[in-house]
Amino acid sequence: MKLKIEAIGQLTSGIRKFTLAPVDGSPLPRAGAGSHVVLEIPGPNRVWKNAYSITSAADAPAYEIMVRRVEKSRGGSAWLHDHAKVGDMLEVSPPQNLFAPQRKAKRHLLLSAGIGITPFLSYLKLPGLAYEMHHCCKPEDEAAFRTLLPFGPQVTLHTSRNTLNLEALLKRQKLDTHLSVCGPESFMDVVLATAAHVGWPAAKVHKESFGGATGGEPFVAHLKRSGMTVNVGREESLLDVMEAVGLTPPCLCRGGACGECKLTVLDGVPAHHDHYLSETERAANNAIMICVSRAKTPELVLDF
Amino acid sequence: MSKNRPVYEPFALEPSGRAHLVVTSLDAPPEGIEDSFDNIEVWTVKHNGPGVPVLAAGGVRPFRSTTELLAQLGHRLGRETAGLRFYAIGSEAFIWDAYNIGVAAGLHSSEISLHRAGPFVRRVYCSHCRTMIEDVPANIVTCPSCEAALFVRDHFSRRLAAFMGVKVDAEVPGEIPAAEVFTS
Q1: pLDDT digits (tens, 9 = 90+) for A88-147
Q2: Which three-class secondary structure state does DSSP give residue A82?
Q3: With a threshold of 0.80, does the pTM exceed it?
């Protein structure tokens, strides 16, 4: 659907807020807590498709998103920061939800860092949610993040790793609590490792991955059934390149988390960057998540 | 035969846990488990025993009945924190009662392990009058409430922690199956 950029706000030096509204005031599809939309962002040579969490409430008249300017931008976030202006029209997918709040949890422990705050902003708009939230950010961004969060003992902002005692925090949670975490890979790795160390079962730990696609060595992919060969450049993802040549491979989260874009590898060795495949599946080298993973060999042959 | 029956693994403590609570409807836990981990507590049932002496954590706490044990369990789990592993050992009725209390307290199935032990007796649910009949030793039993002669089907309800009992000649009136003592 086509949505108009209704407002743009600068949250921190690196994060902008966008309000996306329908032109004719018609109601938007409901976006439950934790959902995201995929934006099609015009680039000089191609269209970028980036996923962003919706931070507004489920039934809000417009979608609000937050976009961090990525240092080595794949293109989308740079355009949204440098060129997007109020009134621009963008193609926006209907909302998808891969990070809905856990229904079985009676309490939620929410841990985020930096832009990882975004999915939780919609959680906090749920009435009556029992939660404890800890958000980590740079000292210069603290004031901006504070404006987004409710005031009270259930929310703590940390501007230094030293003030968050993860182990103690995870140890004192009740049995009916689920942990949800969102932020940079390094942050999530530490949280997940600490949780496992103090005995949290994997079933109660939930992570949201975003912006997973990172560049790497260029490689060539042969798409056997399509009879096509594509060149994946240093700053491109295999999914983006396949879409650029007019193919429509399955995809959903574009961050290596959902499993939707899994393709069969017929030859070559994939370099796995996803969070979906198990260790065994990775070792088998016969499947690839095309949104984030790349190739260890110069060429891959895929069943598509 | 076992389609509607849960399958149980042999008892083993989970090293991934930070604390362990073992409850059993028997009068003693598996030998030596009190010493196998640091942070372990065992609840047993000693009929007509001295009862629970103190409410101190750790060690072995004998309850006078499974009723008393299960009544305390919800309160205890409500005070527990993440990292606990919970184990129940005993009759199928007891371990699934314990499981249901554990889930209500927020435990996930991966934090609970169940082990069947003791005599092969079953709790039977009379599907005609909803009475629970405890410790049934064989496949034909008379419901003490509605006096129906029941056949105990090999169908276990985890929610009720009971086997289904239906009128003994429900399929063909007058046809009574052979009585058998449970061996599983």
Answers
A1: 999 999 998 888 999 889 999 999 999 999 999 999 999 999 999 999 999 999 999 999
A2: helix
A3: yes
How many beta-carbon pairs under 8 angstroms link A with B? 54
Q: Within an 8 Å CB–CB cutoff, is residue A177 touching chain B?
A: yes
Is any Cβ of chain B less than 8 angstroms from the Cβ of A55?
Answer: no
**Residue A6 vs residues A18, A145, B12, B40: alpha-carbon distances, Å:** 8, 22, 60, 59
Q: Are B83 and B18 in contact (CB under 8 A)?
A: yes
Of B36, B34, B26, the residue nearest B57 (C-alpha): B34
Q: Do B110 and A176 touch (CB under 8 A)?
A: no
Q: Which residues of chain A, if any, have pLDDT below 70?
A: 72-74, 161, 209-214
DSSP code string of A170-213: HHT-BTTEEEEEES-HHHHHHHHHHHHHTT--GGGEEEE--S--
CA angle B128, B129, B134 (to 5 degrees): 105
CB crowding A246-261: b at 16 or more within 10 Å, else e: eeebebbbbbbbbbbb
> At residue A122, what is the residue type?
S
Chain A's closest residue to B18, CA to CA, is A199
Whether B110 sits inside 8 A of A200 (CB atoms) is: no
Whole-number Å distance between alpha carbons of B172 and B184: 26
Residue B179: CB atoms within 10 Å:
11
Compare CB distances from A176 to B18, B19, B105 and report the shortest one's residue: B105
Helix axes B66-79, B92-104, angle to 10 degrees: 20
Report chain A's C-alpha Rg in angstroms.
20
B158-168 pLDDT, tens digit per residue, is 999 999 999 99
Contact A177 B106 (CB under 8 A): yes
Nearest CA in chain B to A179: B82
**Taking a C-beta distance cutoff of 8 angstroms, is the pair B88, B44 a contact?**
no
Rounded to the nearest angstrom, the minimum Cα separation between A257 and chain B is 22
Backbone φ and ψ for A103, nearest 5 degrees, come out as -70, -30
Cα–Cα separations (whole angstroms), residue B28 to A199, A208, B13, B64, B136: 27, 45, 16, 13, 22
**How far from each other are the two terminal CA atoms of chain A, in whole angstroms?**
27
Task: Say yes or no for a CB contact (<8 Å) between A204 and B108.
Answer: yes
Cα three-residue angle A201-A206-A211, rounded to 5 degrees: 145
Rounded distance between C-alpha atoms, residue B101 and residue B107, angstroms: 9
Q: Does A56 touch chain B (CB under 8 A)?
A: no
